[in-house]
Fold:
Amino acid sequence: MEKIVIKTRDSVSDILVGAAWEKVKELLPETGVAILTDENIINIYGDRFPEFPVVSISPGEESKKLEVLEKLAEKLLDSGIDRDGFILGIGGGVVCDLAGFLASIYMRGIRCAYVSTSLLSQVDASTGGKNGVNLGEAKNVLGCFKQPEFVICDPLMLKTLPEEEYLSGLAELIKTALIGDRKLFDVIENNQAGILSRDPDLLSMCISMAVNFKAAVVTADEKETGLRRLLNFGHTYGHAIEMFHSFRHGYAVASGMELASGYSLEKGLITLADYERITALLGSYGLLPAHNIPDGIIARLLLKDKKKSGNDIFFVFLNGIGSAVAEKIPVSEAVDFYLHYKPGK
Ligand SMILES: NC(=O)c1ccc[n+]([C@@H]2O[C@H](COP(=O)([O-])OP(=O)(O)OC[C@H]3O[C@@H](n4cnc5c(N)ncnc54)[C@H](O)[C@@H]3O)[C@@H](O)[C@H]2O)c1
Structure:
């Protein structure tokens, strides 16, 4: 087990990678805890939950909305959770985002922690302290920063994750490797059989590497003014593709990473050999479904990017495998690249 500590101005968060999730019992207060989870997780793991009141949501993104948050808060009140209470989220990114947001506003803020159950949440969503809910189609518009006291990332829980969810999370792991850890890229490239069979030791190592990178970024830039922008690599085109084609997030981000790598190649920031390694890796995990956003629509979608300022967007380029840089570019340039990009060139 590796403990990675994320220290920000006013909080400390311990990320426990490789720990058995049942260990959570030893870390919780004796009273005042409520567990927030989703129905899939209850069905698989519910019989081993610590003995505290459980509130649950329907699985999936549809539950990330204010209405659900309000109902959850009512249930916490009914369960007698007061200002000394503690919310334990057990689930993927949706549960962690809801649990963190609820803990930050319930009774003006109570304690929280997560058992992170999906690959996406273990490598990304549950660390860093961002939380929130969607507002209509606009993602994560309402939310805040609150660091969980601890996060348990148990790779054995990933065994029960549906294949598409697993691969979608893998795309975020590859993103971390591309922007910050060349060695992680080598590991993912050289151990495909182990990655696909979800080897827990291999996954522990990969998750640790990803969390260490994210911890360093978040510690340096908790509120996303600079360095943290790099975590959006692949997301500018990715969000547009996700909205237009309704692909799962990770698949859309993988296509966004392919495009951003092609763009970096065109700008002379990476070599053709690196570009080919990146696209081969994404393709080998089946992460590059065809997409085709028509002229006229792509500009509108790119302008929905939360990282825009006026008609410019912060676009994350690679300047090598394991190194990235954010640059402000006009949206029109990004549109033009999308329309003329041909994979493999
Ligand atoms: N806060 C952040 O920094 C941050 C970063 C990235 C993504 N996110 C958010 O994370 C969310 C996506 O997270 P996600 O992909 O984990 O989605 P999710 O929480 O909806 O989980 C995906 C599906 O897998 C199921 N599942 C989860 N763990 C399982 C397990 N161990 N076994 C079997 N089934 C399991 C869930 O029930 C669900 O059906 C999005 O809402 C996104 O906005 C947040």
